[in-house]
Amino acid sequence: MTKRFRRLLQxxxxxxxxxxxxxxxxxxADLNVSPESIIVTGVRNEQASITLTFSxxxxxxxxxxxxxxxxxIDGGGSIAADKIEIxxxxxxxxxxxxxxxRLAVDLAEASASGEFSGSLYLYHPDGRQVVPLIVRIxxxxxxxxxxxxxxxxxxxxxxxxxxxxxxxxxxxVQVGRLRNQMRxxxxxxEDFQTSIESELVDVESAVExxxxxxxxxxxxxxxxxxxxxxxxxxxxxxxxxxxxxxISENFDxxxxxxKSTVYMQGVKDRIDTTRRKLRTGQYETPxxxxxxxxxxxxxxxxxxxxxxxxxxxxxxxSEAQLPKDREQYWLDRLELREKxxxxxxxxxxxxxDWKTKLEHDRDELKEEIAQLTSDDATQEGTGGIMGRSxxxxxxxxxxxxxxxxxxxxxxxxxxxxAGRNLRWFNWISQAIAIALLSWLGMTELYxxxxxxxxxxxxxxxxxxxxGFGAELTRESVVRATQDLGLPLTK
Length: 490
Fold this sequence. Notes:
Blueprint: H1 2-24, E1 31-34, E2 38-43, E3 47-56, E4 61-67, E5 70-71, E6 78-79, E7 84-87, E8 90-93, E9 99-106, E10 114-124, E11 127-138, H2 142-184, H3 190-208, H4 212-231, H5 233-251, H6 255-260, H7 262-279, H8 286-319, H9 324-342, H10 348-370, H11 385-392, H12 412-447, H13 456-483
Helix pairs in contact: 2-3, 2-4, 2-12, 2-13, 3-4, 3-7, 5-8, 7-8, 8-9, 8-10, 9-10, 9-11, 12-13
């Protein structure tokens, strides 16, 4: 019975206490506060405020407000209560009518950015009411903007360098190495060097046009020519020296004939063509060059053979005591043969046909001399066959000395304006891209984070990384889309 009595006594005490609490409890349940939870957000170095609205359905009452110190969750930051202004601190709430109170927080007094929590205490004659108070402070926007723009600029610079600067520098390095290797070879032939340099000129032109694929292809061509020279270096040197000797030995003695005869002009053109092929790297092996010089040597030997046959017949005619009319006949006939030789084609068959005619003339002249019975034939000088033939020979014009004049369709002002338009377009496009990417990053990371700066290392590094990665991602997407052939341009 004792235990049961005790349990009944305890229950009765609890009911009595609850009844007393309910009876004595203040009637602030009818005091309405809007908002029920106070959340103030703002930027450091500014002042944030919120207006509270009170109403009481039981009748007029007096209300006085006070606020506690605000602290972060980890206790590392705080806002003193005296930095929070309540205007007015005491108000009278009429029956069935609202009353307002303004709460202002000086965010510049906060020790750091972050979320601060505390309480707003509302005192009235019937008791006290506690309203949760949260203040969220983010860093001022200037520094985040700088960090975000720096990240985008860093990403833009890296993407531009990867798209243009890297390719340009790689090409320049390869060209520099190739030229250093060429300079180290003192035996490098001038024409062969010219062939490599012509490819490097194309490289420089492609670099100026930012055509990186063409520039890389031209670098490979130049390196292929250099490798071709190195692999057959000794053979190249021997064949080139042989060609120089062939030209100097023959053209030094036939300089006048080169200018005055179609045949020798053709030989000279053949030599110029050989040098042009050398300068443009068209000979794959030294043997190909040797075959070309062998053909030139055959042409020169063929002409010298013809000259020797003509000289023999001219001497034979001049030594013979021919009648005056026959002397003139043979003089004209041999002059005609000489003209035919000077205007002869470059093929072997043309020379053989000419040689056959000259051998027929030789046989005929010998037969005529053998039949001479008269000793009073007058001798006539042969004259200058070469001089007369030189006057009648065809001199080929140099196609490089003349040509149609080229008139540009664009005046200098148009060219300059076009260049300015391209520069402005590039600058404005980059500026717009940087602004849009920065704005998007600030919206995502700064605008949506009411306590930005609470963790400075993480928050600011996130801005920098976002700006850096956004531009690289955009550039990679554009590059991948272009590689797929889709109609999307930078």
